Amino acid sequence: MIMTGTCEPCGENFAIEIFHNGFGDTSYAYCDTCGRTAILSGWSKRWPEGVKCTQAEIAPEMEPYLRPCECGGKFNVGNSPRCPKCREPLSADRAADYLERQAPGTKKGWRWQRSWSGLYCAVINGLQVADNFIDKA
């Protein structure tokens, strides 16, 4: 489900979609520059040997196996989605306000994790890349 969020620093509205990485058997990382989301399938034949599929933010051991973002940034641990206009990091805590207000599961007790590193990841304005592993030589 695509919802709407608002950047705290600049007031820009954006589309936000959240993904449950346990259901998809995926890991993810955010670009350190533009906030694009890399979603990595644990079933990919290109998955690096010896690196665990966390079903959350990538393990640090995954970082050297990922291609850079098309903006020139890096996908690594500890990043967050960013506003598509001002590129400031979005607050996972403040995201609870707009996500819980719009998510159908809230009526049944679902709550946002208030973190960009947990089971759920976010894609802003459709900015995502799948399985951006570096090709093995």
Q: What overall geometry do the principal axes of the alpha carbons give?
A: globular
Residue ranges: pLDDT <50 for 5 or more in a row?
Answer: none
The ordered string of helix (H) and strand (E) elements is EEHEEEHEE
List how many beta strands DSSP finds.
Answer: 7
| Average pLDDT number | 96
- Report the helical percentage: 10-25%
Strand fraction equals 15-25%
What's the number of domains? 1
> How much is the radius of gyration in Å?
15 Å
Secondary-structure-derived class = alpha+beta
Query: End-to-end span in angstroms?
Result: 38 Å
The biggest beta sheet is recorded as: 4 strands, mixed
How many separate helices? Answer: 2
Strand order of the largest sheet: 5-3-4-7
What does this structure look like?
The protein is an alpha+beta fold. The strands form 2 sheets. The protein has a 4-stranded mixed beta sheet with strand order 5-3-4-7. Strands 1-2-6 form a 3-stranded antiparallel beta sheet. It has one domain. It starts with a strand and ends in a 7-residue tail after the last strand. A hairpin with a 5-residue loop joins strand 3 (26-31) and strand 4 (37-41). The chain is built from 2 helices and 7 strands.
